[in-house]
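How it folds:
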Amino acid sequence: MFSIIIPIYNSEYYLRDSIESVINQSIGFKENIELILIDDGSVDSSPQICEFFKNLYPNNIKILRIENSGPSTARNCGLSNVSEKSKIIGFLDSDDAFSQNALQSVYNFFVIPKM
């Protein structure tokens, strides 16, 4: 189980692509990924974009809101809300995206025994 934390501040132009890059992971989003979205006081449509995806995947996506405090505080807030069943925690900025096999590669590196 992966937990991916995305701190968000006024990222409406990039956020959809960022979230979709996590949802579309080859490892299987519904079965293996928890997405924690931290809205760091956005004043654009970022909160509505987060809610849209939360409604699609209510069991996989958490939304937390904090007063604007910066990305480090947002990341720490996300860390405090990771599920106990999570084995690997990752971070993604709201204007970045994962390649489709990113988490599968991480899993293969850290979990599959090497000969």
Summary: The radius of gyration is 14 Å. The beta strands are 2-8, 33-39, 61-65, 88-91. DSSP finds five helices and four strands in the chain. The CA atoms of residues 108 and 114 lie 9 Å apart.
